[in-house]
Amino acid sequence: MSPAIQHTIAIHQVAQMLLGVEREADRAALLRRAGIAPALLESGLARVTQQQYARLMSALVRSQRDELCGLGSSPMPLGTFATGCRLLVGHRRLGDAIRAGLRYYHAVLPDFVPRLQVDGATAYLRLGARRGMQSRQIYAARVFMFFSYGVMCWLAARRIPVSEVVYHDSDVARRSDASRLFQAPICLADGEWGFRFDARWLDLPVVQNAQSVEEFLQQVPGCLLVKYRDQASLTERIRRMLRRYLAEEMPSLEQISDMLATTPQTLRRRLQREGQGYQLIKDALRRDVAVEYLTQSDLPLPEIAARVGFAEASTFHRAFKGWTGLTPGAYRHAHQDDERPSASA
Fold it and tell me: Do residues 47 and 291 make contact, with C-beta atoms less than 8 angstroms apart?
């Protein structure tokens, strides 16, 4: 088994997604339906796979009968997203489709107002709060922001580069994975969220149609997590390069700079613009591959340690606990225990 190079998602995102579910028993049942061990919520550093997160979102929509997963002050009826997507493919330009989509959502979003603002060469998709919002409503705004970006990219069948992501809370921004998801730096603003991009992308043609929209709707939300990640970004290029060295000693910053025909100083600056650092990329790759091995294979822990570049299992244990808050054994046992049928089943 050779795991895909897929990013994992912070357990903080899972906890936020469940804010609209009141009963603990219901939360635990939803987590199990998504293949997520409820015990992982006790560790603020744990990670889940993209497939697990997508399954949780789908399970929440079905159980709550609300496309905002119970996060808003009032539910969003099932079918709202599908109707909106079908509306968008009737437009010829991306900018026209975005404006039409935001007008459509004005009537159904109770807690925040989405707008497209263009200032010279910069476009800004901005979400402004209608009133004071609780944590769950704030997370709903961030989910809507991410879905809006994914739909934009899908309409044009290409990734739209983001120059800046706007969050209103520094602690939430730090834990949100937003910089990695959008591959752009984060700035802070009071009472608003959004992202900025070059306004010239608004003139892109909408290439989707009535047939492709039905195929797209069968694949959401999972496809939005991975399809339009910028595979050409420096972060992703380095991540793919390092995958070849995962079981060996990884190249130094100087060596990877030589491979990319650049200098270490330039490499650091370019990674910083993407909200990344070389050590962060190495640690995240090892962590994500280890999580996939622990949850989707029966490999012994020493073998997993070797496959992610650790000569000693004890060193791997310490590193993994630093990344996720749990030892590899505890992480695996949490999933195994959760998969065993209960006595009442």
Answer: yes
Per DSSP, the three-state class of 4 is: coil
Cα angle, residue 272 at apex, residues 266 and 277 outer, rounded to 5°: 95
| Residue 127: its H or E element | strand 122-129
Specify whether domain 234-339 bears CATH 1.10.10.60: yes
Region for residue 248 given its phi and psi (left: phi exceeds 0; alpha: psi -120 to 50; beta: otherwise): beta
pLDDT digits (tens, 9 = 90+) for 303-322: 999 999 999 999 999 999 99
CA–CA dist 147, 127 (Å, integer): 13
Q: Give the pairing type, strands 162-167 and 192-198.
A: antiparallel
Q: What is the pLDDT of residues 3-40, one digit of tens each?
A: 555 788 889 999 999 999 989 899 999 999 998 989 89
pTM above 0.85, yes or no: no
pLDDT at 176: 57
Nearest residue to 142 (alpha-carbon basis) of 187, 177, 118: 177
What residue spans define the domains of the chain? Answer: 65-226, 234-339
The two tokens of residue 330 are 């505890």
Q: Is 227 helix (H, G, I), strand (E, B) or coil?
A: coil
Q: Is residue 205 within 8 Å of residue 156, measured between CB atoms?
A: yes
Q: Tokens standing for 236?
A: 């992703």
Q: What's phi and psi for 99, nearest 5 deg?
A: -60, -40
Q: How many CA atoms lie within 13 A of 34 on its CB side?
A: 30
* Residues present in the chain in total: 345
How many CB atoms neighbour CB 319 within 10 A? 19
85 contacts 148 by C-beta, under 8 angstroms: no
Specify the DSSP class assigned to residue 129.
Answer: E
- Return d(Cα 10, Cα 13) in angstroms, integer: 6
Q: What is the DSSP string of 165-212?
A: EEES-HHHHHHS-HHHHHTS-EEE-TTEEEEEEEGGGGGSBP---HHH
Tokens of 212: 């492709």
Q: How far apart are CA 229 and CA 181, in angstroms?
A: 7
- CA end-to-end span of the chain: 32
CA 310 – CA 286 distance, rounded (Å): 10
